[in-house]
Amino acid sequence: MIYLNWYHKYLPIIFGVLSYIVNPLFIYLVLTKSSKHMGKYRFLLIGFAVFDIFYSIAEMLTPIAVINTGYGFATFITDGFFTENANYAISSRCTFIAISYALLIIHFVYRYFILFHPHLVDKMLQPLGVFAMIALTAAHGASWTWLCDWCLAPNEEIRDIVRPAFKEVHHVNSDNISLLTGQYRNASNFVVYKSWFGILSLTLFSCYCMSVYLVLGYKIMKKMNQNTNMSTISATLNRQLFKALVAQTCIPMFASFLPTVIAWYAPMFLINVTWWNNYICNVALSAFPLIDPVVVIYFIPNYKNTLLVWFRLKKPTVTATSTSMFSIPTL
């Protein structure tokens, strides 16, 4: 075990435990408190919640930290069964980032279809559509894993480069520690070229995902703003969808994309951001499975009001049959 401090060790564990509580609760709310107008979209919500649970399990089994190696970095497993001689474990753990990107793309596409091509919404959750979503998710995960494994897995040369940093900072022998590395200078051309190729490819991969969110998000918001002859209910639902869209767009950008890009590129300029990686980046990544269901609960009144009643923060009320924000095309 490599111990950094209580902040790095225990905050991800706290987020993981809360994720194990909140996501099953979220699944219960989706199954029992969803408006009938939500239709099959609730299955996508449940699918994301199940993924969040597995994401938290991976966080608990493979806690990671980052160490600066001059013009490079090493991401390594700090504790647990996979601490030594298991580079595949850390590659698989990083794959969850790519899978989360794919699932968010699927949600954005669904929302886009609701407004622009409502006839395709049902097809999206038929066998062919489900196969396409699984294929997209698998392609994301496989691509990310291959890039990490082929470009960033250490060889003997890299082990020699990172050994002094581990000795100086953590007082351990790094020869058998499970890790991934990027080395931009002061190494052989083979190592440097692989590092550059891997990091640039992962960056382009992330930018492609962020671009899909921004483009589809912009088109969705523009389409909603064009619907000027809305009823009061439609306008309210429109605002709810806008807020949920902005929040869910910010989650991957600020909890995943921005921290990892800083972690990747700072060593290129000989900037030591070990503190950022270990105390901001890794903690932000571990919080993602908890933040996502909380955001959805907050922006869907049926779910939020149910929790407020349970915790005696709001008195139960009898209302007319509500309409979900996902029924906008039928209004």
UniProtKB/TrEMBL annotation:
InterPro entries attached to this UniProt entry: 7TM_GPCR_serpentine_rcpt_Srj (IPR019423)
A Pfam family that the UniProt record links to this protein: 7TM_GPCR_Srj
Transmembrane segments: 12-31, 43-68, 88-113, 125-147, 196-220, 241-264, 276-300
Keywords of this entry: Membrane, Receptor, Transmembrane, Transmembrane helix
PANTHER family: SERPENTINE RECEPTOR, CLASS J
The protein, known as: Serpentine Receptor, class J
Record organism: Caenorhabditis elegans
